[in-house]
Protein backbone atom coordinates (compact mmCIF):
# COMPACT_ATOMS: atom_id res chain seq x y z
CA UNK A 1 0.00 0.00 0.00
CA UNK A 2 1.57 3.26 -1.04
CA UNK A 3 0.80 6.67 0.34
CA UNK A 4 -0.45 9.07 -2.29
CA UNK A 5 -1.41 12.06 -0.22
CA UNK A 6 -2.52 12.52 3.32
CA UNK A 7 -6.15 11.96 2.36
CA UNK A 8 -5.87 9.02 -0.03
CA UNK A 9 -4.27 5.59 0.13
CA UNK A 10 -3.68 3.43 -2.90
CA UNK A 11 -4.25 -0.26 -2.50
CA UNK A 12 -2.85 -2.28 -5.41
CA UNK A 13 -3.70 -5.96 -5.33
CA UNK A 14 -2.50 -7.66 -8.53
CA UNK A 15 -3.06 -5.50 -11.60
CA UNK A 16 -5.68 -3.37 -9.92
CA UNK A 17 -5.10 -0.18 -8.02
CA UNK A 18 -7.83 1.29 -5.88
CA UNK A 19 -7.94 4.67 -4.20
CA UNK A 20 -9.08 4.42 -0.63
CA UNK A 21 -9.80 7.22 1.70
CA UNK A 22 -9.05 6.21 5.29
CA UNK A 23 -10.88 9.17 6.78
CA UNK A 24 -14.09 8.37 4.90
CA UNK A 25 -13.85 4.69 5.77
CA UNK A 26 -13.27 5.46 9.45
CA UNK A 27 -16.17 7.93 9.48
CA UNK A 28 -18.53 5.47 7.78
CA UNK A 29 -17.52 2.68 10.16
CA UNK A 30 -17.94 4.75 13.32
CA UNK A 31 -21.29 6.16 12.17
CA UNK A 32 -22.53 2.69 11.26
CA UNK A 33 -21.54 1.32 14.67
CA UNK A 34 -23.30 4.23 16.37
CA UNK A 35 -26.38 3.60 14.23
CA UNK A 36 -26.34 -0.07 15.20
CA UNK A 37 -26.01 0.84 18.88
CA UNK A 38 -28.85 3.35 18.60
CA UNK A 39 -30.96 0.76 16.82
CA UNK A 40 -30.34 -1.79 19.59
CA UNK A 41 -31.40 0.74 22.24
CA UNK A 42 -34.52 1.66 20.30
CA UNK A 43 -35.39 -2.03 19.86
CA UNK A 44 -35.07 -2.70 23.58
CA UNK A 45 -36.91 0.24 25.13
CA UNK A 46 -40.67 0.51 25.33
CA UNK A 47 -43.49 -0.80 27.51
CA UNK A 48 -41.88 -4.22 27.45
CA UNK A 49 -38.12 -4.13 27.97
CA UNK A 50 -36.25 -6.49 25.66
CA UNK A 51 -32.53 -6.53 26.46
CA UNK A 52 -29.87 -6.83 23.74
CA UNK A 53 -29.14 -10.46 24.73
CA UNK A 54 -32.79 -11.37 24.22
CA UNK A 55 -32.88 -9.48 20.93
CA UNK A 56 -30.05 -11.68 19.69
CA UNK A 57 -31.81 -14.82 20.96
CA UNK A 58 -35.11 -13.83 19.34
CA UNK A 59 -33.38 -13.11 16.03
CA UNK A 60 -31.65 -16.47 16.27
CA UNK A 61 -35.03 -18.08 16.92
CA UNK A 62 -34.10 -19.56 20.31
CA UNK A 63 -36.30 -17.46 22.57
CA UNK A 64 -39.49 -19.17 23.73
CA UNK A 65 -41.41 -15.99 24.65
CA UNK A 66 -43.90 -15.53 21.78
CA UNK A 67 -45.07 -12.14 23.00
CA UNK A 68 -41.60 -10.59 23.07
CA UNK A 69 -40.94 -12.20 19.74
CA UNK A 70 -44.00 -10.59 18.19
CA UNK A 71 -43.26 -7.18 19.72
CA UNK A 72 -39.74 -7.28 18.37
CA UNK A 73 -40.30 -8.77 14.93
CA UNK A 74 -43.66 -7.22 14.06
CA UNK A 75 -43.46 -3.82 15.72
CA UNK A 76 -40.04 -2.63 16.79
CA UNK A 77 -37.82 -4.13 14.12
CA UNK A 78 -39.90 -2.77 11.19
CA UNK A 79 -39.98 0.61 12.88
CA UNK A 80 -36.22 0.63 13.56
CA UNK A 81 -35.29 -0.59 10.09
CA UNK A 82 -37.64 1.93 8.48
CA UNK A 83 -35.77 4.63 10.37
CA UNK A 84 -32.39 3.29 9.23
CA UNK A 85 -33.23 2.90 5.55
CA UNK A 86 -35.35 6.04 5.26
CA UNK A 87 -32.47 7.98 6.80
CA UNK A 88 -29.91 6.44 4.47
CA UNK A 89 -32.09 6.90 1.37
CA UNK A 90 -32.85 10.55 2.14
CA UNK A 91 -29.23 11.35 2.94
CA UNK A 92 -27.88 9.79 -0.27
CA UNK A 93 -30.60 11.47 -2.28
CA UNK A 94 -29.68 14.80 -0.68
CA UNK A 95 -25.97 14.25 -1.37
CA UNK A 96 -26.70 13.67 -5.06
CA UNK A 97 -29.00 16.69 -5.39
CA UNK A 98 -26.63 19.00 -3.54
CA UNK A 99 -23.90 17.96 -5.94
CA UNK A 100 -26.06 18.28 -9.06
CA UNK A 101 -27.30 21.72 -8.04
CA UNK A 102 -23.91 22.75 -6.59
CA UNK A 103 -25.90 24.19 -3.75
CA UNK A 104 -26.34 23.15 -0.14
CA UNK A 105 -30.03 24.02 -0.45
CA UNK A 106 -30.60 21.71 -3.40
CA UNK A 107 -32.03 18.84 -1.40
CA UNK A 108 -35.08 16.90 -2.55
CA UNK A 109 -37.33 18.21 0.22
CA UNK A 110 -36.61 21.80 -0.84
CA UNK A 111 -36.89 21.33 -4.59
CA UNK A 112 -40.29 19.74 -4.62
CA UNK A 113 -39.62 16.04 -5.06
CA UNK A 114 -40.71 14.90 -1.61
CA UNK A 115 -43.68 17.27 -1.87
CA UNK A 116 -44.55 15.58 -5.16
CA UNK A 117 -44.27 12.19 -3.48
CA UNK A 118 -46.55 13.48 -0.74
CA UNK A 119 -49.09 14.66 -3.33
CA UNK A 120 -49.21 11.17 -4.78
CA UNK A 121 -49.73 9.69 -1.34
CA UNK A 122 -52.41 12.20 -0.37
CA UNK A 123 -54.37 11.51 -3.56
CA UNK A 124 -54.37 7.85 -2.59
CA UNK A 125 -55.33 8.43 1.05
CA UNK A 126 -57.95 11.13 0.49
CA UNK A 127 -59.65 9.88 -2.66
CA UNK A 128 -59.03 6.14 -2.70
CA UNK A 129 -58.50 5.32 1.00
CA UNK A 130 -55.87 2.80 0.06
CA UNK A 131 -53.50 0.97 2.40
CA UNK A 132 -49.75 1.13 2.90
CA UNK A 133 -48.81 -0.52 -0.39
CA UNK A 134 -51.01 1.78 -2.46
CA UNK A 135 -49.68 4.85 -0.65
CA UNK A 136 -46.13 3.68 -1.30
CA UNK A 137 -46.71 3.16 -5.01
CA UNK A 138 -48.51 6.50 -5.30
CA UNK A 139 -45.71 8.29 -3.48
CA UNK A 140 -43.06 6.87 -5.81
CA UNK A 141 -45.20 7.71 -8.84
CA UNK A 142 -45.80 11.23 -7.53
CA UNK A 143 -42.10 11.78 -6.87
CA UNK A 144 -41.07 10.50 -10.29
CA UNK A 145 -43.75 12.47 -12.09
CA UNK A 146 -42.68 15.65 -10.29
CA UNK A 147 -39.07 14.95 -11.21
CA UNK A 148 -39.94 14.43 -14.87
CA UNK A 149 -41.91 17.69 -14.99
CA UNK A 150 -39.22 19.66 -13.16
CA UNK A 151 -36.51 18.15 -15.33
CA UNK A 152 -38.41 18.88 -18.52
CA UNK A 153 -39.11 22.47 -17.48
CA UNK A 154 -35.51 23.02 -16.39
CA UNK A 155 -34.03 21.51 -19.55
CA UNK A 156 -33.05 23.84 -22.33
CA UNK A 157 -31.56 22.41 -25.48
CA UNK A 158 -31.45 19.07 -23.65
CA UNK A 159 -29.10 20.54 -21.07
CA UNK A 160 -30.24 20.99 -17.49
CA UNK A 161 -28.67 23.95 -15.74
CA UNK A 162 -28.05 23.61 -12.03
CA UNK A 163 -29.69 26.81 -10.90
CA UNK A 164 -32.62 26.31 -13.23
CA UNK A 165 -33.18 22.92 -11.64
CA UNK A 166 -33.28 24.37 -8.13
CA UNK A 167 -35.46 27.35 -9.06
CA UNK A 168 -37.93 25.36 -11.11
CA UNK A 169 -37.99 22.75 -8.32
CA UNK A 170 -38.77 25.33 -5.66
CA UNK A 171 -41.59 26.73 -7.80
CA UNK A 172 -42.97 23.28 -8.44
CA UNK A 173 -42.74 22.44 -4.73
CA UNK A 174 -44.79 25.51 -3.81
CA UNK A 175 -47.51 24.64 -6.30
CA UNK A 176 -47.70 21.05 -5.10
CA UNK A 177 -47.69 22.08 -1.48
CA UNK A 178 -50.67 24.36 -2.12
CA UNK A 179 -52.33 21.51 -3.99
CA UNK A 180 -51.75 19.20 -1.01
CA UNK A 181 -53.45 21.74 1.26
CA UNK A 182 -56.38 22.00 -1.11
CA UNK A 183 -56.85 18.24 -1.20
CA UNK A 184 -56.85 18.12 2.61
CA UNK A 185 -59.44 20.88 2.75
CA UNK A 186 -61.63 19.30 0.11
CA UNK A 187 -61.38 15.66 1.14
CA UNK A 188 -63.72 13.91 3.58
CA UNK A 189 -62.81 14.72 7.18
CA UNK A 190 -61.69 11.21 8.21
CA UNK A 191 -59.48 10.83 5.22
CA UNK A 192 -58.06 14.31 5.63
CA UNK A 193 -57.09 13.51 9.22
CA UNK A 194 -55.40 10.32 8.04
CA UNK A 195 -53.55 12.22 5.39
CA UNK A 196 -52.55 14.91 7.84
CA UNK A 197 -51.07 12.32 10.18
CA UNK A 198 -49.17 10.87 7.28
CA UNK A 199 -47.96 14.34 6.29
CA UNK A 200 -46.42 14.84 9.73
CA UNK A 201 -44.05 12.00 8.95
CA UNK A 202 -44.31 9.05 11.25
CA UNK A 203 -42.54 5.86 12.18
CA UNK A 204 -45.32 4.47 14.35
CA UNK A 205 -47.24 1.45 13.10
CA UNK A 206 -44.66 0.60 10.44
CA UNK A 207 -44.75 -2.97 9.19
CA UNK A 208 -42.58 -4.97 6.84
CA UNK A 209 -44.57 -3.58 3.92
CA UNK A 210 -43.05 -0.20 4.74
CA UNK A 211 -39.51 -1.50 5.26
CA UNK A 212 -38.98 -3.75 2.25
CA UNK A 213 -39.37 -1.24 -0.64
CA UNK A 214 -37.08 1.37 0.82
CA UNK A 215 -34.61 -1.31 1.91
CA UNK A 216 -34.50 -2.79 -1.60
CA UNK A 217 -34.16 0.69 -3.04
CA UNK A 218 -31.12 1.34 -0.86
CA UNK A 219 -29.52 -2.02 -1.65
CA UNK A 220 -29.98 -1.63 -5.42
CA UNK A 221 -29.50 2.10 -5.98
CA UNK A 222 -26.84 3.19 -3.51
CA UNK A 223 -24.16 1.01 -5.24
CA UNK A 224 -25.01 2.66 -8.58
CA UNK A 225 -24.60 6.06 -6.98
CA UNK A 226 -21.29 5.02 -5.36
CA UNK A 227 -19.98 3.91 -8.77
CA UNK A 228 -20.89 7.20 -10.46
CA UNK A 229 -19.98 9.46 -7.52
CA UNK A 230 -16.52 10.33 -8.81
CA UNK A 231 -17.86 11.42 -12.20
CA UNK A 232 -20.54 13.53 -10.56
CA UNK A 233 -17.91 15.25 -8.43
CA UNK A 234 -16.06 16.11 -11.67
CA UNK A 235 -19.26 17.65 -13.04
CA UNK A 236 -19.23 20.03 -10.06
CA UNK A 237 -16.28 21.81 -11.71
CA UNK A 238 -18.47 22.78 -14.66
CA UNK A 239 -20.10 20.82 -17.46
CA UNK A 240 -17.48 21.79 -20.04
CA UNK A 241 -14.51 20.78 -17.95
CA UNK A 242 -16.09 17.47 -16.97
CA UNK A 243 -17.13 16.72 -20.54
CA UNK A 244 -13.68 17.44 -21.89
CA UNK A 245 -12.30 15.00 -19.30
CA UNK A 246 -14.48 12.33 -20.86
CA UNK A 247 -17.45 12.34 -18.47
CA UNK A 248 -20.78 11.88 -20.25
CA UNK A 249 -22.24 14.72 -18.28
CA UNK A 250 -25.91 14.53 -19.23
CA UNK A 251 -26.05 10.76 -18.89
CA UNK A 252 -24.37 10.72 -15.49
CA UNK A 253 -26.61 13.50 -14.25
CA UNK A 254 -29.76 11.82 -15.52
CA UNK A 255 -28.95 8.43 -13.94
CA UNK A 256 -27.96 10.05 -10.66
CA UNK A 257 -31.06 12.26 -10.49
CA UNK A 258 -33.27 9.30 -11.33
CA UNK A 259 -31.74 7.13 -8.58
CA UNK A 260 -31.95 10.01 -6.11
CA UNK A 261 -35.60 10.75 -6.91
CA UNK A 262 -36.55 7.10 -6.49
CA UNK A 263 -34.73 6.93 -3.14
CA UNK A 264 -36.41 10.11 -1.88
CA UNK A 265 -39.82 8.93 -3.06
CA UNK A 266 -39.40 5.48 -1.49
CA UNK A 267 -38.36 7.09 1.79
CA UNK A 268 -41.36 9.44 1.67
CA UNK A 269 -43.64 6.53 0.86
CA UNK A 270 -42.34 4.61 3.86
CA UNK A 271 -42.44 7.30 6.54
CA UNK A 272 -44.09 10.40 5.10
CA UNK A 273 -42.21 13.59 4.34
CA UNK A 274 -39.28 13.68 6.76
CA UNK A 275 -37.73 17.12 6.84
CA UNK A 276 -34.10 18.10 6.71
CA UNK A 277 -32.35 14.71 6.84
CA UNK A 278 -31.61 15.06 3.13
CA UNK A 279 -30.33 18.57 3.71
CA UNK A 280 -28.28 18.06 6.85
CA UNK A 281 -26.80 14.57 6.57
CA UNK A 282 -24.67 15.20 3.43
CA UNK A 283 -23.46 18.52 4.87
CA UNK A 284 -22.44 16.86 8.13
CA UNK A 285 -20.84 14.00 6.21
CA UNK A 286 -18.93 16.54 4.11
CA UNK A 287 -17.44 17.97 7.27
CA UNK A 288 -16.11 14.54 8.27
CA UNK A 289 -14.52 13.69 4.91
CA UNK A 290 -11.82 15.36 2.79
CA UNK A 291 -13.08 18.00 0.37
CA UNK A 292 -13.76 17.29 -3.27
CA UNK A 293 -15.53 13.96 -3.14
CA UNK A 294 -19.14 12.92 -2.89
CA UNK A 295 -19.37 11.19 0.52
CA UNK A 296 -22.12 8.73 -0.39
CA UNK A 297 -21.52 6.02 2.18
CA UNK A 298 -20.70 8.44 5.00
CA UNK A 299 -23.85 10.42 4.19
CA UNK A 300 -25.91 7.21 4.20
CA UNK A 301 -24.56 6.23 7.62
CA UNK A 302 -25.07 9.77 8.90
CA UNK A 303 -28.67 9.86 7.67
CA UNK A 304 -29.43 6.51 9.27
CA UNK A 305 -27.90 7.65 12.54
CA UNK A 306 -29.86 10.94 12.57
CA UNK A 307 -33.13 9.10 11.95
CA UNK A 308 -32.45 6.51 14.64
CA UNK A 309 -31.59 9.26 17.13
CA UNK A 310 -34.69 11.27 16.19
CA UNK A 311 -36.78 8.14 16.64
CA UNK A 312 -35.21 7.45 20.04
CA UNK A 313 -35.83 11.02 21.21
CA UNK A 314 -39.38 10.68 19.96
CA UNK A 315 -40.13 7.71 22.13
CA UNK A 316 -38.10 8.33 25.25
CA UNK A 317 -39.33 11.92 25.66
CA UNK A 318 -41.93 11.96 28.45
CA UNK A 319 -44.64 13.47 26.28
CA UNK A 320 -47.07 10.61 26.60
CA UNK A 321 -47.77 10.67 22.89
CA UNK A 322 -45.40 9.45 20.26
CA UNK A 323 -44.05 12.51 18.54
CA UNK A 324 -44.25 12.47 14.74
CA UNK A 325 -40.66 12.08 13.65
CA UNK A 326 -41.06 14.39 10.69
CA UNK A 327 -41.92 17.28 13.04
CA UNK A 328 -38.93 16.47 15.25
CA UNK A 329 -36.44 16.41 12.39
CA UNK A 330 -38.07 19.60 11.17
CA UNK A 331 -37.33 21.46 14.40
CA UNK A 332 -33.78 20.15 14.72
CA UNK A 333 -33.06 20.55 11.02
CA UNK A 334 -34.49 24.06 10.94
CA UNK A 335 -32.09 25.13 13.66
CA UNK A 336 -29.26 23.50 11.75
CA UNK A 337 -30.27 25.29 8.53
CA UNK A 338 -30.29 28.68 10.28
CA UNK A 339 -26.87 27.96 11.74
CA UNK A 340 -25.60 26.91 8.31
CA UNK A 341 -26.93 30.05 6.64
CA UNK A 342 -25.55 32.32 9.34
CA UNK A 343 -22.02 30.93 8.96
CA UNK A 344 -21.88 30.54 5.22
CA UNK A 345 -20.36 33.26 3.10
CA UNK A 346 -21.39 31.80 -0.21
CA UNK A 347 -25.13 31.23 0.17
CA UNK B 1 -8.32 32.33 -52.67
CA UNK B 2 -5.28 33.16 -50.56
CA UNK B 3 -6.64 31.19 -47.63
CA UNK B 4 -6.68 27.94 -49.50
CA UNK B 5 -3.13 28.40 -50.64
CA UNK B 6 -2.13 29.17 -47.10
CA UNK B 7 -3.73 25.97 -45.90
CA UNK B 8 -2.01 23.89 -48.52
CA UNK B 9 1.32 25.49 -47.75
CA UNK B 10 0.75 24.71 -44.11
CA UNK B 11 -0.38 21.14 -44.68
CA UNK B 12 2.85 20.28 -46.46
CA UNK B 13 4.90 20.94 -43.38
CA UNK B 14 2.40 20.47 -40.58
CA UNK B 15 -0.47 18.10 -41.27
CA UNK B 16 -3.73 19.04 -39.55
CA UNK B 17 -4.21 17.14 -36.30
CA UNK B 18 -7.67 18.63 -35.83
CA UNK B 19 -9.91 19.81 -38.61
CA UNK B 20 -13.35 21.38 -38.74
CA UNK B 21 -15.16 20.92 -42.03
CA UNK B 22 -18.07 23.18 -43.02
CA UNK B 23 -19.22 23.55 -39.41
CA UNK B 24 -22.55 25.17 -38.65
CA UNK B 25 -23.55 25.97 -35.08
CA UNK B 26 -26.35 28.06 -33.66
CA UNK B 27 -27.72 28.80 -30.20
CA UNK B 28 -31.49 28.94 -30.08
CA UNK B 29 -32.18 31.02 -33.17
CA UNK B 30 -28.86 32.89 -33.29
CA UNK B 31 -26.45 31.54 -35.87
CA UNK B 32 -22.91 31.44 -34.49
CA UNK B 33 -21.17 30.25 -37.62
CA UNK B 34 -22.07 28.55 -40.85
CA UNK B 35 -19.95 26.48 -43.19
CA UNK B 36 -16.78 27.21 -41.28
CA UNK B 37 -13.53 25.40 -42.20
CA UNK B 38 -10.46 25.35 -40.03
CA UNK B 39 -7.37 23.17 -39.81
CA UNK B 40 -5.19 23.08 -36.73
CA UNK B 41 -1.57 22.34 -37.70
CA UNK B 42 0.13 19.65 -35.65
CA UNK B 43 2.94 20.69 -33.33
CA UNK B 44 2.22 24.40 -33.75
CA UNK B 45 0.74 27.17 -31.63
CA UNK B 46 -2.48 28.39 -33.17
CA UNK B 47 -3.96 31.59 -31.78
CA UNK B 48 -7.51 32.66 -32.52
CA UNK B 49 -8.33 36.38 -32.25
CA UNK B 50 -11.51 38.30 -32.88
CA UNK B 51 -13.93 40.71 -31.24
CA UNK B 52 -16.25 39.60 -28.45
CA UNK B 53 -19.04 37.21 -29.41
CA UNK B 54 -17.52 36.37 -32.79
CA UNK B 55 -17.76 32.66 -32.08
CA UNK B 56 -14.26 31.88 -30.77
CA UNK B 57 -15.39 29.97 -27.70
CA UNK B 58 -18.08 28.13 -29.63
CA UNK B 59 -15.45 27.13 -32.16
CA UNK B 60 -13.21 25.70 -29.44
CA UNK B 61 -16.16 23.89 -27.90
CA UNK B 62 -17.12 22.45 -31.27
CA UNK B 63 -13.56 21.36 -32.02
CA UNK B 64 -13.42 19.59 -28.65
CA UNK B 65 -16.78 17.77 -29.24
CA UNK B 66 -18.62 19.64 -26.45
CA UNK B 67 -20.89 21.28 -28.99
CA UNK B 68 -22.37 19.11 -31.70
CA UNK B 69 -22.53 21.05 -34.98
CA UNK B 70 -25.81 20.98 -36.90
CA UNK B 71 -23.81 20.49 -40.06
CA UNK B 72 -20.26 19.54 -40.85
CA UNK B 73 -17.84 17.44 -38.91
CA UNK B 74 -14.75 17.60 -36.75
CA UNK B 75 -11.90 15.28 -37.63
CA UNK B 76 -9.37 14.37 -34.96
CA UNK B 77 -6.38 12.67 -36.55
CA UNK B 78 -8.49 12.19 -39.69
CA UNK B 79 -11.27 10.37 -37.88
CA UNK B 80 -14.67 11.80 -36.99
CA UNK B 81 -14.40 12.94 -33.39
CA UNK B 82 -17.76 11.49 -32.34
CA UNK B 83 -16.60 8.05 -33.37
CA UNK B 84 -14.06 8.02 -30.56
CA UNK B 85 -15.02 7.02 -27.04
CA UNK B 86 -15.41 10.04 -24.80
CA UNK B 87 -12.39 9.17 -22.67
CA UNK B 88 -10.43 8.26 -25.78
CA UNK B 89 -10.80 11.82 -27.06
CA UNK B 90 -9.89 13.10 -23.60
CA UNK B 91 -6.54 11.30 -23.84
CA UNK B 92 -5.73 13.08 -27.12
CA UNK B 93 -7.36 16.47 -26.75
CA UNK B 94 -7.80 18.66 -23.68
CA UNK B 95 -9.77 21.89 -23.30
CA UNK B 96 -9.43 24.52 -20.63
CA UNK B 97 -12.79 26.35 -20.59
CA UNK B 98 -13.00 30.06 -19.87
CA UNK B 99 -14.28 29.55 -16.38
CA UNK B 100 -14.43 26.56 -14.11
CA UNK B 101 -15.33 26.31 -10.46
CA UNK B 102 -13.27 24.43 -7.94
CA UNK B 103 -15.13 22.45 -5.29
CA UNK B 104 -14.94 24.24 -1.93
CA UNK B 105 -11.94 23.25 0.16
CA UNK B 106 -10.21 21.07 -2.43
CA UNK B 107 -6.40 21.13 -2.33
CA UNK B 108 -4.19 21.81 -5.34
CA UNK B 109 -2.79 18.29 -5.66
CA UNK B 110 -6.29 16.77 -5.59
CA UNK B 111 -7.53 19.16 -8.26
CA UNK B 112 -4.56 18.51 -10.55
CA UNK B 113 -5.06 14.77 -10.04
CA UNK B 114 -8.54 15.08 -11.53
CA UNK B 115 -6.88 15.61 -14.89
CA UNK B 116 -5.98 11.92 -14.81
CA UNK B 117 -9.60 10.82 -15.07
CA UNK B 118 -9.50 9.75 -18.75
CA UNK B 119 -6.51 7.50 -18.02
CA UNK B 120 -8.19 5.67 -15.18
CA UNK B 121 -10.66 2.80 -15.00
CA UNK B 122 -12.81 1.37 -12.27
CA UNK B 123 -10.13 -1.13 -11.26
CA UNK B 124 -7.11 1.02 -12.08
CA UNK B 125 -7.78 4.17 -10.16
CA UNK B 126 -4.25 5.33 -9.47
CA UNK B 127 -0.96 4.13 -10.97
CA UNK B 128 2.66 5.24 -10.97
CA UNK B 129 2.01 6.93 -14.32
CA UNK B 130 -0.74 9.04 -12.74
CA UNK B 131 1.53 9.96 -9.86
CA UNK B 132 4.29 11.00 -12.24
CA UNK B 133 2.04 12.99 -14.57
CA UNK B 134 0.61 14.98 -11.67
CA UNK B 135 4.06 15.67 -10.21
CA UNK B 136 5.40 16.79 -13.59
CA UNK B 137 2.40 18.98 -14.30
CA UNK B 138 2.75 20.73 -10.96
CA UNK B 139 6.49 21.13 -11.53
CA UNK B 140 6.03 22.60 -15.02
CA UNK B 141 3.50 25.15 -13.83
CA UNK B 142 5.39 25.99 -10.65
CA UNK B 143 2.59 25.02 -8.28
CA UNK B 144 4.32 22.01 -6.69
CA UNK B 145 5.09 24.00 -3.56
CA UNK B 146 1.35 24.73 -3.21
CA UNK B 147 0.29 21.08 -3.39
CA UNK B 148 -1.46 21.09 -0.02
CA UNK B 149 -2.94 24.59 -0.25
CA UNK B 150 -6.65 24.97 -0.96
CA UNK B 151 -7.74 26.85 -4.07
CA UNK B 152 -9.37 29.58 -1.99
CA UNK B 153 -5.97 30.52 -0.57
CA UNK B 154 -4.41 31.21 -3.98
CA UNK B 155 -4.16 34.35 -6.07
CA UNK B 156 -5.83 34.55 -9.47
CA UNK B 157 -2.56 33.88 -11.27
CA UNK B 158 -1.77 30.85 -9.14
CA UNK B 159 -5.26 29.52 -9.61
CA UNK B 160 -4.99 29.78 -13.38
CA UNK B 161 -1.70 27.87 -13.24
CA UNK B 162 -3.37 25.16 -11.18
CA UNK B 163 -6.07 24.74 -13.85
CA UNK B 164 -3.33 24.60 -16.47
CA UNK B 165 -1.55 21.97 -14.38
CA UNK B 166 -4.73 19.90 -14.36
CA UNK B 167 -4.86 20.08 -18.14
CA UNK B 168 -1.17 19.17 -18.34
CA UNK B 169 -1.69 16.16 -16.10
CA UNK B 170 -4.21 14.98 -18.66
CA UNK B 171 -1.16 14.52 -20.95
CA UNK B 172 -2.94 15.27 -24.20
CA UNK B 173 -0.87 16.00 -27.31
CA UNK B 174 -3.45 18.64 -28.29
CA UNK B 175 -4.46 21.40 -25.86
CA UNK B 176 -7.16 24.01 -26.45
CA UNK B 177 -7.12 27.02 -24.11
CA UNK B 178 -10.00 29.48 -24.00
CA UNK B 179 -8.59 32.85 -22.93
CA UNK B 180 -5.97 31.45 -20.56
CA UNK B 181 -4.68 34.95 -19.72
CA UNK B 182 -7.97 36.61 -18.77
CA UNK B 183 -8.05 37.92 -15.17
CA UNK B 184 -4.24 37.82 -14.96
CA UNK B 185 -1.88 40.76 -14.52
CA UNK B 186 0.74 41.31 -17.19
CA UNK B 187 3.44 39.35 -15.40
CA UNK B 188 1.24 36.30 -14.97
CA UNK B 189 0.01 36.64 -18.55
CA UNK B 190 3.56 36.37 -19.85
CA UNK B 191 4.25 33.52 -17.45
CA UNK B 192 1.33 31.54 -18.82
CA UNK B 193 2.18 32.31 -22.44
CA UNK B 194 5.84 31.38 -21.95
CA UNK B 195 4.77 28.15 -20.30
CA UNK B 196 2.57 27.42 -23.32
CA UNK B 197 5.47 28.07 -25.66
CA UNK B 198 7.73 25.77 -23.66
CA UNK B 199 5.11 23.03 -23.78
CA UNK B 200 5.03 23.43 -27.53
CA UNK B 201 8.75 23.77 -28.18
CA UNK B 202 10.01 21.22 -25.65
CA UNK B 203 7.25 18.64 -25.67
CA UNK B 204 5.91 19.15 -29.16
CA UNK B 205 2.33 19.68 -28.03
CA UNK B 206 -0.18 21.28 -30.37
CA UNK B 207 -1.73 24.35 -28.78
CA UNK B 208 -4.80 26.33 -29.72
CA UNK B 209 -5.44 29.51 -27.72
CA UNK B 210 -8.01 32.25 -27.79
CA UNK B 211 -6.26 35.50 -26.88
CA UNK B 212 -7.47 39.10 -26.69
CA UNK B 213 -4.15 40.94 -26.91
CA UNK B 214 -3.13 41.24 -30.57
CA UNK B 215 0.53 41.81 -29.77
CA UNK B 216 0.68 38.71 -27.59
CA UNK B 217 -1.09 36.79 -30.32
CA UNK B 218 1.43 38.00 -32.91
CA UNK B 219 4.33 37.10 -30.69
CA UNK B 220 3.28 33.62 -29.61
CA UNK B 221 1.35 32.33 -32.59
CA UNK B 222 2.85 30.19 -35.34
CA UNK B 223 -0.53 30.22 -36.99
CA UNK B 224 -2.89 33.13 -36.46
CA UNK B 225 -6.62 32.89 -37.10
CA UNK B 226 -8.67 36.09 -37.24
CA UNK B 227 -12.42 35.70 -36.80
CA UNK B 228 -15.29 38.08 -37.14
CA UNK B 229 -19.01 37.43 -36.86
CA UNK B 230 -18.62 33.68 -37.19
CA UNK B 231 -16.30 33.78 -40.16
CA UNK B 232 -12.60 33.25 -40.52
CA UNK B 233 -11.33 36.43 -42.15
CA UNK B 234 -7.70 35.38 -42.43
CA UNK B 235 -5.45 32.58 -41.26
CA UNK B 236 -1.70 32.13 -41.55
CA UNK B 237 1.62 33.10 -40.04
CA UNK B 238 1.24 36.42 -38.18
CA UNK B 239 3.85 38.23 -40.27
CA UNK B 240 2.04 37.23 -43.45
CA UNK B 241 -1.51 38.08 -42.51
CA UNK B 242 -1.34 40.81 -39.88
CA UNK B 243 -1.96 44.03 -41.81
CA UNK B 244 -3.59 47.32 -41.01
CA UNK B 245 -6.49 46.40 -43.35
CA UNK B 246 -7.09 43.12 -41.52
CA UNK B 247 -7.05 44.76 -38.10
CA UNK B 248 -9.50 47.41 -39.30
CA UNK B 249 -11.77 44.82 -40.85
CA UNK B 250 -11.81 42.48 -37.86
CA UNK B 251 -11.65 44.84 -34.90
CA UNK B 252 -12.98 48.09 -36.39
CA UNK B 253 -9.90 50.03 -35.33
CA UNK B 254 -7.35 52.00 -37.27
CA UNK B 255 -3.89 50.71 -36.48
CA UNK B 256 -0.34 50.83 -37.65
CA UNK B 257 1.66 47.66 -37.98
CA UNK B 258 5.30 48.07 -36.99
CA UNK B 259 8.02 45.55 -36.37
CA UNK B 260 8.54 44.68 -32.72
CA UNK B 261 12.13 45.87 -32.06
CA UNK B 262 12.70 43.08 -29.55
CA UNK B 263 11.29 40.02 -31.26
CA UNK B 264 10.93 41.07 -34.89
CA UNK B 265 7.26 40.03 -34.79
CA UNK B 266 4.53 42.31 -36.15
CA UNK B 267 3.56 44.94 -33.65
CA UNK B 268 0.08 46.41 -33.67
CA UNK B 269 -0.19 50.03 -32.67
CA UNK B 270 -3.86 50.91 -32.23
CA UNK B 271 -4.65 54.48 -33.26
CA UNK B 272 -8.38 54.97 -33.09
CA UNK B 273 -11.66 53.14 -33.17
CA UNK B 274 -13.41 53.64 -36.48
CA UNK B 275 -16.62 53.70 -34.55
CA UNK B 276 -18.77 51.24 -36.42
CA UNK B 277 -19.84 48.41 -34.17
CA UNK B 278 -20.85 44.96 -35.32
CA UNK B 279 -24.53 45.71 -35.48
CA UNK B 280 -23.92 48.65 -37.79
CA UNK B 281 -25.00 51.32 -35.35
CA UNK B 282 -22.96 54.46 -35.66
CA UNK B 283 -21.52 55.22 -32.24
CA UNK B 284 -18.80 57.75 -32.69
CA UNK B 285 -18.10 61.02 -34.54
Automatic annotation (TrEMBL), chain A:
It is found in: Cell membrane. GO terms for biological process: siderophore-iron import into cell. It is a multi-pass membrane protein. It comes from the Bacteria. Keywords: Cell membrane, Membrane, Transmembrane, Transmembrane helix, Transport. Pfam families: FecCD. InterPro entries: ABC_BtuC-like, ABC_transptr_permease_BtuC. GO terms for cellular component: plasma membrane. The chain crosses the membrane at residues 80-98, 110-127, 133-153, 165-188, 208-229, 254-281, 293-313, 325-342. One of its GO terms (molecular function) is transmembrane transporter activity. Belongs to the binding-protein-dependent transport system permease family. FecCD subfamily. This is ABC transporter permease. It comes from Marinobacter lutaoensis. The lineage of its organism: Bacteria, Pseudomonadati, Pseudomonadota, Gammaproteobacteria, Pseudomonadales.
